[in-house]
Specification:
The radius of gyration is 30 Å and the shape is elongated. Helix 1 crosses helix 5. Strand 1 and strand 2 form a beta hairpin. Helices cover about 35% and strands about 20% of the residues. With about 300 residues, the protein is α+β, with helices and mostly antiparallel strands. The protein has 3 domains: about 110 residues, no CATH class; about 60 residues; about 80 residues, no CATH class. The protein is built from 9 helices and 14 strands. The strands form 5 sheets. Strands 3-4-7-6 form a 4-stranded antiparallel beta sheet. The chain has a 3-stranded antiparallel beta sheet with strand order 5-8-14, with no helix packed on it. The chain has a 3-stranded antiparallel beta sheet with strand order 10-11-12, with helices on one face.
């Protein structure tokens, strides 16, 4: 436990992490038994090496290997998943529902010290005496060290009907707000039909959320001049945004007495006029102006405020 002088309270979070790690390891019988057997094998190996040091074989080296036996793959895989918060109950991530209300997004950074305590608790299976601790610290550092202690581990939690409606939602992270190339999550987990968690290595400077770009379609934007109407910002010949106000059709013409039906002929005329064309507007030029892919929304976490 750690004492916090500013509050006069003890911080039991690291103790809770250690105990949680131990309980999670014990909950998996195959992992705990395999880990214990491997530790016993390593101890026997070291004792044999020490015995050989005191009593040299009369025939010299008998060919026995001095290398430590590697941990079982099942145990290594379990600890690797634990480093990405697998097996950890959701109430340890969000202890109160008010912290993640409906239609909300939360950014977080995993405490490396808390994770190291979690790992040590899980690795403590079979630890009995103080001498075991000294030996196991060497093994833990070599085989079961929390790999994100230096780079850090960050994540985003989304609770929204958007997750339920589009379960294939993509979430990418960026190392800088100006970056255009995102990195996929190390782990993507649906905790419920509308709660999504994504973990990334390093700090989050920006997060993109978008649908899988499977199809293309025509699209319009909301009008800036009249509520309930639509607008279309035009593109240059290379497909990039023109960016001038006079290159925006606002509002987009609609058929009379036809509700939300677009007047394609009238829109074609406006496109031709806006682009100052002295020839007919072809179908490929119309598609260039109207086509859209998946909408991508970028979130930039607010900087931390130092106290």
């Amino acid at each position: 436990m750690r004492y916090t002088p500013s509050t006069g309270l003890f911080d039991v979070s690291c103790s809770a992490a250690w105990e949680l790690g131990r309980l999670l390891a014990l909950a998996s019988k195959s992992v705990s038994v395999s880990l214990y057997k491997w530790k016993r094998t390593v101890t026997q190996h070291w004792l044999k090496q020490r015995h050989r040091g005191f009593h040299d074989h009369p025939l010299g080296d008998t060919g026995r290997s001095s290398e430590l036996p590697p941990p079982p793959d099942e145990v290594l895989g379990w600890f690797s998943g634990l480093g990405l918060l697998e097996q950890i109950p959701f109430n340890y991530l969000v202890p109160d529902e008010a912290l993640l209300p409906m239609e909300s997004i939360r950014f977080f950074r995993v405490d490396s010290l808390w994770m190291e305590c979690l790992f040590d608790g899980a690795f403590s299976i079979g630890r009995v005496i103080g001498q075991d601790l000294e030996v196991e610290k060497q093994l833990e550092h070599r085989f079961f060290r929390y790999r994100y202690s230096t780079t850090g581990l960050s994540g985003v939690l989304i609770r929204s009907e958007l997750v339920a409606g589009w379960p294939g939602l993509h979430v990418d992270a960026h190392d800088s707000a100006a970056s255009q190339t995102g990195k996929p999550p190390l782990r993507r987990e649906l905790y419920s039909s509308n709660v999504l968690c994504c973990l990334f290595e390093g700090d989050l400077k920006a997060v993109d959320i978008y649908l899988k770009p499977e199809t293309l379609h025509f699209g319009l934007d909301a009008s800036m001049k009249k509520a309930g109407e639509f607008a279309r910002k035009l593109r240059a010949a290379d497909g990039s945004s023109v960016g001038n106000n006079d290159k925006t059709i606002d509002p987009v013409p609609r058929r009379e007495n036809a509700g939300r039906v677009i007047d394609i002929a009238g829109l074609s005329v406006k496109l031709k006029e806006a682009q100052n064309l002295n020839r007919s507007l072809t179908s490929d030029m119309f598609a260039l102006e109207m086509i859209e892919g998946s909408v991508k929304v970028r979130f930039t976490p607010a900087p931390e405020v130092s106290s």
